[in-house]
Amino acid sequence: MKLRIRGNSIRIRLQMTEIEQLSINGSVTETVRFAPDQILGYSIIVSKNATAITARFEANAVVVNIPQSMAADWCEGEDVSLEEDQVIGQGELLKILLEKDFQCLTRRDGEGDMFPNPNEPH
Asked: What digits encode the pLDDT tens for the residues 40-73?
């Protein structure tokens, strides 16, 4: 997974195996280690009780919850992204964007199992 944070927005991109893991296991998690005792985690969790995509920050981790029906449709379907604007108070919103990660048109080392880019010439 790739995590991008900018202002009041978070974007997470998932590779094909991560989408499969989310579909099968109901969650996918990644970490960034800054030092032996400094770790930032980020997870996407499928929730039976959720009615919208939500995000929270707790215990040094960004946790995004997705409603079960929405996750199933996204994982199995052709839709590229899911997004939600979460009210965080004082007139502010947190924009949450989840995307399937496509191959770059210019190949790069270590890209892994990205989704085929729909703009790639055939």
From this structure: 999 999 999 999 999 999 999 999 999 999 999 9
Residue 114 neighbours by CB under 8 Å, 6+ apart: 15, 16, 101, 102, 103, 104
**List of residues 6+ apart from 92 with CB closer than 8 A:** 8
CB 83 within 8 A of CB 96: yes
Give the type of residue at 59.
A
Output 105 or 118, whichever has higher pLDDT. 118
Residue 30, CA distances (Å) to 19, 33, 36, 52, 109 in order: 13, 10, 16, 22, 20
pTM above 0.85, yes or no: no
Maximum CA extent, the chain: 49
Q: What span, in angstroms and rounded, lies between the C-alpha atoms of 68 and 62?
A: 19
